Amino acid sequence: FSPSVLGTREHWDAAYERELQNFQDIGDTGEIWFGEESMVRIIRWLEKHKVPLDSSVLDIGTGNGVLLVELAKSGYRNLTGIDYSPSAIQLSEKVREKEGMSNIKLKVEDFLAPSAELSGFDICIDKGTFDAISLDPSDAAGKRKLYVGSLCRVLKPEGFFLITSCNWTKEELLNEFREGFEILEELPTPKFCFGGRIGNSVTALVFQRK
């Protein structure tokens, strides 16, 4: 796929400034990437595998923070969201406040250059952030490598990484995360039929850090 403005910080700063204004004007929390079913899919997996409610969870590129709110409503209580866009964190703080979820931690962080205290997580979740990095007009391949290195640093050994992508197939993601991770499970996502062939518009995988 080609480089795109969707891979630039300027795009996301502007997008979240608009969403922040919309939230302040009409209380709209903004877009949920991959829809509500993508959040249900993640929470269902955590519950099915009896992941303890006090497990430390990092939402990489949290955006409006709605996924963290849903996790908190499901009983998870050690939740952190990061985003490199200050406007996104401002929006997620307002959503957190509206929902009364004061225990959700939110920070402006660039995942490609994480701070030292961003470490030791049991679970990392990515819903579209790796996709956006992959569209960066400047050295997307290098930034994907930085992403994998950061993930190895912040996720505990044997920790879980749940990724949802609309740009990458299962095989491509297995290749991208071959260093330090093994696939545990592919999660079911909606299928489509085109020209007699059946495919998935979204890929959702669970990896475990070696």
Automatic annotation (TrEMBL):
<keyword id="KW-0949">S-adenosyl-L-methionine</keyword>
<keyword id="KW-0808">Transferase</keyword>
<dbReference type="Pfam" id="PF13847">
    <property type="entry name" value="Methyltransf_31"/>
</dbReference>
<dbReference type="InterPro" id="IPR025714">
    <property type="entry name" value="Methyltranfer_dom"/>
</dbReference>
<dbReference type="InterPro" id="IPR029063">
    <property type="entry name" value="SAM-dependent_MTases_sf"/>
</dbReference>
<keyword id="KW-0963">Cytoplasm</keyword>
<keyword id="KW-0489">Methyltransferase</keyword>
<dbReference type="InterPro" id="IPR026635">
    <property type="entry name" value="Efm4/METTL10"/>
</dbReference>
<protein>
    <submittedName>
        <fullName>EFMT2 methyltransferase</fullName>
    </submittedName>
</protein>
<dbReference type="GO" id="GO:0005737">
    <property type="term" value="C:cytoplasm"/>
</dbReference>
<dbReference type="GO" id="GO:0032259">
    <property type="term" value="P:methylation"/>
</dbReference>
<keyword id="KW-0539">Nucleus</keyword>
<dbReference type="GO" id="GO:0016279">
    <property type="term" value="F:protein-lysine N-methyltransferase activity"/>
</dbReference>
<feature type="domain" description="Methyltransferase">
    <location>
        <begin position="56"/>
        <end position="185"/>
    </location>
</feature>
